[in-house]
What we know:
single chain; binds zinc ion; 14 strands; two-stranded antiparallel ribbon; 394 residues; alpha/beta; globular
Amino acid sequence: MQTAAYLYPWDVVGDPAAPDLVAGLGLDHVVLAAVYHATRAVTPRHPHHRVVTAPHTAAYYTLDPHRWHGKQLRPSPGLWTGEADPFERASAALDAARVRVHAWVVLNHVDLPAPVPHTVVNAYGDRYPWALCPAQDAVLEYATGVAADVAGLPGIGAVELEAAGWFGADHAGAHDKTGAAALSSAERYLLSLCFCDACGSAYARAGVEPDPLRRKVRASLMPAFAGHVRGLAADTDTASELAEIDTLLGVDLAAAVASVRQQIAEGYRSVVVAAVRQRRADLPVLLHVNPRPHRSAAFTGVNAARAARSVDALVVNCWFGVDNLLSTVDAGAPVHASLLAVSGLGGSPADLGGRVESIRAAGAAGIRLYHAGMATDADLAAIRSLSAEHRSTP
Length: 394
Ligand SMILES: [Zn+2]
């Protein structure tokens, strides 16, 4: 079973000891951020930093001015690392220490330097500046450009796509207070539906008039915003969530909306994956997914069997259990399970071995440990012992 861990370029650039330290973890590879949203992150061992602030989405590789000249949406460099090419620098340093590198690319979850009209608009007309809408041509152009850029990065062994689909109301950022409205998963789905012009056209082509849909969504959410909790848990099983969406929208309308959104997201992903393969046909593409198709978050909601046919492997979130793995393991592609390995973020090094055993028993092809850069020395010791145990075992 493969063992890998996530890493930021700033965990390596400017720290001459980092490549050997990462090599000593015994991982099969690291997944190094190439395009990433805003964050504040600790980097506990760096000789010059402890807290890195990335104020907006950035590409951490050298941007080709010809590709991006005049484009409506384009990535910005992450100059807070002190370099214009931190990905290449970190990747080369890791390569010299014989650490293999995969590129980690966050697509539709963004924090852009300025508001853009290419973001999701909810049923009330509120824009979500953190969520690019995959129905929009400019977003497709941006994502395929990023995909082609990343596929051309020297030395990488795979591309791992996060937020490659619908993103929506859920966003743990900007001092989030949206939890003040106690919404169920189905209600959050309704609040994530996009009503931008491109989505409006897509609904209309499918025979769904956007204005009545918008009114239906608002009416369905009115009790929740009035504080009438309908007795449904915030997170429940997939069938119950889908049944609640059916209740809120009506079965036929719910199915029509889901179909439109699935077509948009799948069309978007197929073009993005094609852009990677056109640049480098041998480069595996991994996709972060949630087997609940109505979810719109970093692990984007998919039909797992259809997603498995579109990429080389899937990555599912197993921070809180193995349900997502159990729902995808027979989808038809290798599945890697993401596990939280940083104790300060809620991970438990003491339990890691047992959790990996259950993940291996459930049929995972590998694990992704979040996150080697932010891990404490004790967290790293747990990662090291895990790698020693699982490396190259079937
Ligand atoms: Zn839209």
